[in-house]
Amino acid sequence: MVSVVLACYNEEQILARSFEEIRDTLEDLGRPYEVIFVDDVSRDRTRETIRALAAAHPGVDIQVILHETNQGRGATVTDGFRAARGDIVGYLDVDLEVHSRYIPSLVRAIEKGADVATVRRIYAFQLRSLDRYVMSRGYSFLVRRLLGVPFHDTETGYKFFRRERLLGVLDEIEDGGWFWDTEFMVRALRHGLRVEEVPGAYVRRRDKTSTVSG
């Protein structure tokens, strides 16, 4: 089974459409799957949207986890991973700035022997996105130089794992917020996990405000 965690925070406007695209991708994958919604105390109607989606799709294996206090992205996806039942488990950002079409490539990478498969985001340079482009490239450079890892994109919100190898790393992670992704990738490398980065196009959405503060 493939388990997909959707970490939600104020996703009311985009969640239904994104879920449909993710579901279609998983259906085409041809493997049993489940979707795990984890809401990190959204301030809009995200929780109502999640309940409506679950009710409207009784044929889809759906779990719903609702936080009582805001805990951050890392803690949110971690709760989903621990609840997952699939032997392959992963998450992708709900905004689909990197499309769900890359899920099959990551699943196949794990089936062929990788312990971790991630999307390495390929940015189409746009002047109006110069700030995000510079921050992303600069952060990647600093991670490689200061932490001594070979990865090009530790912060990508698009990672899949072999669950049995994932859990031991989760137990060591200290940061439950934005830095979770980088910490996971560094610890995965030190655990000897085999990591494969798969290129994927990143398309900036203008209809959703990022929660990442420069």
Structure description:
The protein is of the alpha/beta class. It has helices at 15-29, 46-56, 73-83, 103-111, 130-147, 163-170, 180-190, and strands spanning 2-8, 33-39, 62-66, 88-92, 116-123, 158-162, 195-202. Strands 3-2-1-4-6-5-7 form a 7-stranded mixed beta sheet, with helices on both faces. The longest helix has 18 residues, at 130-147.
Describe this protein with a few key phrases.
alpha/beta, 214 residues, 7-stranded mixed beta sheet, globular, 39% helix
Provide a short characterization of the protein structure.
The chain is of the alpha/beta class and about 210 residues long.
Number of strands: 7
Q: Which strand order does the major sheet show?
A: 3-2-1-4-6-5-7
Largest sheet: 7 strands, mixed
Indicate the proportion of strand residues.
15-25%
How far is it from the N-terminal to the C-terminal residue, by CA? 37 Å
Helix fraction bin: 25-40%
Structural class: alpha/beta
Radius of gyration: 16 Å
* Count of runs of 4 or more consecutive helical residues: 7
Mean pLDDT: 90
Shape: globular
Spell out the helices and strands N to C: EHEHEHEHEHEHHE
Topology:
Elements: E1 2-8, H1 15-29, E2 33-39, H2 46-56, E3 62-66, H3 73-83, E4 88-92, H4 103-111, E5 116-123, H5 130-147, E6 158-162, H6 163-170, H7 180-190, E7 195-202
Parallel strand pairs: 1-2, 1-4, 2-3, 5-7
Antiparallel strand pairs: 4-6, 5-6
